[in-house]
Amino acid sequence: MNFEWSIIWRSREALLEGTLTTVLLSVVTMTIAIAGGMLLALMRLSRWRALSASSAAFVEFFRNLPLILVVYWAFYVLPELTGWQLDAFSTGLVALSLNVSAYNAETFRAGIMSIRKGQGEAALTLGMSEVQAMWHVVLPQAVRRVVPVLASTWISLFKDTSLVSVIGVSELAHVSLEIRAQSFRVLEMLTAMAAIYWALGYPQAKLVDWINRRYGHTE
Amino acid sequence: MNPVIEYRAVCKNYGSFVALRDVSFSVSKGEVVCLIGPSGSGKSTLLRCTNGLEQISGGAILLDGAPLPQTRAGMRAVRQRMGMVFQNFELFPHRSVFANVMMGPLTVLRMDHAAARARAEALLDKVGLADKAASMPAALSGGQQQRVAIARALAMEPAVMLFDEPTSALDPETIGEVLSVMKRLADEGMTMIVVTHEMTFARRVADRVVVFERGGVLLEQGPPRQIFDAPLMERTRDFLSHLDWSG
Amino acid sequence: MFDWDLSALEESWRFLLGGVGVTLGLSALTVATSLTLGIAVGVLRCYAGAWLRVPLTFYVDSMRAIPVLVVLVWMYFAFPLLTGVSAGPFWAALAALTVHVAAYVAEIVRAGIESVRPGQIRAALALGMSQPQLVMQVVLPQALVRMLPAIGSVVSVTIKDTAIAATIAVPEFMKRAETVAGQSYQPVQVYTAALVVYFLILFPTTRLIDRIHARVAHLGRS
Ligand SMILES: Nc1ncnc2c1ncn2[C@@H]1O[C@H](COP(=O)(O)OP(=O)(O)OP(=O)(O)O)[C@@H](O)[C@H]1O
Ligand SMILES: [Mg+2]
């Protein structure tokens, strides 16, 4: 068997671009999904049944679907139903954001719920308003619980961006698979793809562990 | 009479922190020794060292005249001859009361099932919980859980029983039931080392009281009447005067 | 207004249903192999010597870093080139998903083991138990009960991950939906139906696991 590892070096520009797209997609998705998750969590905790029920339905729905199907669905069905004509990147962004927002909503809700009722009540007895109690007492405590979970969601998201390759978003996985198809250097390109993901993801996983040690397991 | 357990200048350090400093005393067969002293004075540490859950840093602990073995297998054999009761009961939550009591005989002694069963039944009866055999630990009150824990330790037919504040985590109403089980055990001639804050129990049941003070130092020891009524050391008197004598 | 012509689904429902069977079969096999491998790795990571702990930790953390799609594609296309062994997409998918999910299980197992209170271990030692005895009889049973919700998520993660096996042409439900959607020119109906089917599989699964957990939670509380 002869392998030609130089293909990787020769494809460095395309791979770099793909990597940047992966990072960009992750960052933008997370930004949208933090806002989306926050909104969904507040809806879920609201007193209005209609709001909390629709938030619950949204969250349960997207948490119980394979992301790759949501990606296909966003690509083939969404334009038909809505008339929007989005490019592949935006379509991938929509699918990822729907998915991650649902997960973040649960994270935020659990974070807020985990703060004992007594804490909020203690703040109210000090004469704080509900908003003040939320802002000064409940949220700061919730953040400590939420940050580690968000960090591991980030890692999942970073890996999940590879799934939008199926609709032709030219992120790292797609670029690698394309070069493989054109050059027939299958083993080399697939190994390179795995290695690049590993090189990017491994330190992030270690960072998440560190964040967990730092913030996790307090009380 | 030869002591069952003898502490000879036992030292225990955690890094540079000294938890026990030159502790020496001994416990004879059938004797009930109560360890008292302020929080952090090393009472639990001494029990854990006795049971080989911690290694001592200096001195020696002798069991029936022989130093505690340093090997893992040797230590296991020693633990089988000592029962230990913990402040938080530490019943195994995934097994029924009955299974908790049978666990030692079955897994450690490899006793056959019928014999283990008979032993567990007898012990649960002895601690007054025959009717709770099928319950799960979570369904029991603290006092009941602690009595099961005592039965579990007794199931190994130990030569010595170690108690580490067995009633400190209990509601006041259930403390009595645990203490009376312990008293009965003492009356039957069990050798016992009891770390406790229950001074009434110590006075009534102990043959000897050993007083520790901060820094892991043995302050004084003697029969309960001497310790409680006429302590030799000023600091013992100090410590006792700060205790709650109810119960 | 969109025209909901369902003829493609009417024609192909048997084919699609067969895909659901493959999805469930692959999921069940993957869960079984991953639990076995993952529990072994998790336990060894806690109790084995450093010579084994270090490579196992490296394996687990690597799988946390590499997307499952990448593992699947590599296992199907690259592994046979390297070794000359080629076993077809289904088995490649089983192997790849197992390697991936087992690492996830191993993390859960380790966290479960570490969450058992030290007092429980002391109590088992005080009874004279050996290390293997206390692991098997005291630590693992409690850890496993506590891990149930997380193990439940392993089941649903696995079912979702099998959909990615469509990319290496495993004829499971996702792949068949893709085929029908492409051939019938009715992607809207087919993908929407697929959405509903996956939800109907996954939602009750998560609910069932929550139920079971609520029932046995007290067994792990110490
Ligand atoms: N594993 C350990 N590492 C470091 N220090 C320890 C450790 N275990 C105990 N200590 C310290 O040793 C001292 C003695 O602890 P020990 O638990 O024996 O006290 P105690 O007399 O049982 O007190 P209490 O009445 O509160 O139970 C304490 O200051 C404690 O902080
Ligand atoms: Mg103590």
Structure description:
The complex is a heterotrimer of chains A (219), B (247) and C (222). Chain A has 219 residues and is an all-alpha fold. Chain A has one domain (7-215): MetI-like fold (Orthogonal Bundle), CATH 1.10.3720.10. In chain A, 81% of the residues lie in helices and 0% in strands. The model of chain A has no long low-confidence stretch (mean pLDDT 88). In chain B, the strands form two sheets. In chain B, strands 6-7-8-3-9-10 form a six-stranded mixed β-sheet, with helices on both faces. In chain B, helix 3 (97-108) packs across helix 4 (113-126). The relative contact order of chain B is 0.17. The model of chain B has no long low-confidence stretch (mean pLDDT 91). With 222 residues, chain C is mostly helical. Chain C has one domain: MetI-like fold, CATH 1.10.3720.10. Chain C contains eight helices and no strands. Chain C has helices at residues 7-47, 50-65, 68-83, 88-115, 118-126, 131-162, 173-184, 187-216. In chain C, helix 1 runs antiparallel to helix 2 (50-65), helix 1 (7-47) packs antiparallel against helix 7 (173-184) and helix 7 (173-184) packs antiparallel against helix 8 (187-216). The longest helix of chain C is centred in the N-terminal third of the chain and has 41 residues, at 7-47. The model of chain C has no long low-confidence stretch (mean pLDDT 90). Chains A and C meet through helix 3, helix 4, helix 8, helix 9 and helix 10 of A and helix 2, helix 3, helix 6, helix 7 and helix 8 of C.
